[in-house]
Amino acid sequence: MVNDLIPWVDTHFRTLADKDHRAMAGLSMGGFMTASVTMVNLDKFSYIGLLSGGTAAGFGAGGPGSPIPIGAPAPPPAALDLKTIYSGAMADPAEFNKKVRVFFFSCGTEPPLENPEALKIHQQQLIAAGITNSYLYISPGTSHEWQTWRRSLFTFGQLLFK
Hints:
Layout: H1 5-12, E1 23-27, H2 29-38, E2 47-51, H3 93-99, E3 102-108, H4 116-128, E4 134-139, H5 146-157
Parallel strand pairs: 1-2, 2-3, 3-4
């Protein structure tokens, strides 16, 4: 992504090739990959969108990579450790706020794979820790599906490059 794809895009298309004009978003497992790529490359991305995936609130009781079994109640999110969450990108909230203009995450309201209550708690924890650029969108009446992501992308898109 960083070594091959971004330079290729910047040489073949009319882009503003700097972090202030670069966003990355992904849905479901793509949200997890977006978090994995962007959080260790904050010098290259100012806008991050995690659509139904990629947040610490979306992980099962076993931690990152541990899914919540379908039909099982989702455990409450653990207290955030900013030194370790998102590869430590938020360890210094003031620095994270300077580097990232929008940290957007979303989900639908319907089970079995969506967990809006956990995301609300996740955002509250981020705000309490000093992360001021987080945005949460919850798509009413949808689950882990295209309608959720269409609405999420529409909402995220309105926050980009302002």
